[in-house]
Amino acid sequence: MAPQYAPSLRSRLAPLLLFLQTAFIIIYAFFVEVDSNVKVDGETFSNFYAEFQDVNVIVILGFGFLCTFLVRYGFSGSGFNLLVAVMATQWAIILNGIESWYYRGKIRVNLRSLVVAEMCTASVLISMGTMLGKTNPVHLIIIALLEVSGFIVNEWVLQTLLKVNNCSCVSHSHQILGPSIFTPYTTQCMLYSQGNSPVCCLYSPGSVFLWMFWPTFNSVLVDDRTPGRKLGAVCSTYLALAVSAVTAAAIALLSHPKGKLNLIHMQSCILAGGVAVGVSMSAVHQPWEAMTIGFSAAIISTIGFQYLKIHMLLAFQCHDTCATLSTHGLPGLLGWLSHLLLQIRDSDDHTMAIRFAVFHICTLLITITISLSTGFVTGLLLKWNFWRPPQSKKCFDDQAFWEFPHNAVRK
């Protein structure tokens, strides 16, 4: 029998990328301009550019190298991450600037708008990890366009209906909306071909970059007009990350039958505290509160990684490549619950506490509803054979998309 080769994407991917990039250039030419104001919301270029760099490192290097534990999919894990990130960021700038275009006739671009766009992109990259290796780049571009649109719609609904501030909108959307988009896209891929490389995992800087720069990710949009608020966000995030790293190591040892650490296990779970405290940031005022949240998030994430992933595969045929649900989904929900409990505890008026609880539950329901709706539409589109999905024996295989000159036969 002749070998089965992956279908060529020349007639699908290249036209799609050229069409989208040409359309973006035209839109930017007529409707986008750089904001000439020296100060933006009290932030100057010199003191905000470092935070923009930190977020950029998270999006490009952190998420990019996070998936190099896939021994035969390292090129695609990092390369497609960059491709999706830059396309999603350009699209997010346009959608975020629609209100500015409506009132001013132009979409204003500055460092803050770039940061918000990249945080929208982070939501795409998080949910992309659930399907990585079982999709092709065309699928990933479609996911990026639709999920950024869902992210902006969710932010607009929360701000319009519930008057949620921008920082809280971004936190809820990227921590909860992204992991909730488990699209109903399934493929009969050979999961044994996923392959985990301990060496690649050991020297993968993705988790290290995310761990180092996550305090900036949680604090970059915090209003610093209240003295010490941004500093408190940075300290709380660091303490939650530190506690989650220690707790994840302890739980990993206890859950292993021989008492050994799993590198991929650690890579996924050490971020749980930062994810959870990011959602509950506005209600965290004491270091011990952040540390408790980090401790609880690490336990939930580690147990979820150990048991939930395999059960979801067996029960629902839902294969989560990067354990996104246990790394971001469960800690995100824990952060939402922690925010609710802390706000109720700090409220002296029972009536206001009840109103806040109803308000807080509505934000979660709206976010999950929009995310599931977006995921359902995305899944229906990805099931079309027109996009030439990878064959079952070509999942988690770089050779389906990349040229390997050193594998050429020499005569």
Question: How would you sum up this structure in a few lines?
Answer:
The chain has 411 residues and is mostly helical.
Give the topology string: H per helix, E per strand: HEEEHHHEHHHHHHHHHHH
Please tell me the total number of domains: 1
Hey, roughly how much beta strand do the residues contain?
under 5%
Q: How would you sum up the global shape?
A: globular
Low-confidence stretches: 180-193, 197-203
CATH topology: Ammonium transporter fold
**Number of helical elements:** 15
Please identify, by name, the CATH architecture: Orthogonal Bundle
CATH-defined superfamily: Ammonium transporter AmtB like domains
Task: Please give the share of residues in helix.
Answer: 55-70%
Structural class: mainly alpha
* Largest sheet descriptor: 2 strands, parallel
Could you give the distance between the termini? 24 Å
Overall pLDDT score: 81
How many beta-strand segments? 4
CATH class: Mainly Alpha
Radius of gyration from the alpha-carbon trace, in angstroms = 21 Å
Membrane topology: Multi-pass membrane protein
Main location: membrane
GO molecular function, one term: ammonium channel activity
Subcellular location: Membrane
How would you describe this structure in keywords?
NH4_transpt_AmtB-like_dom, 411 residues, two-stranded parallel ribbon, Ammonium transporter AmtB-like domain-containing protein, Ammonium transporter fold, 67% helix, mainly alpha, 15 helices, two-stranded antiparallel sheet
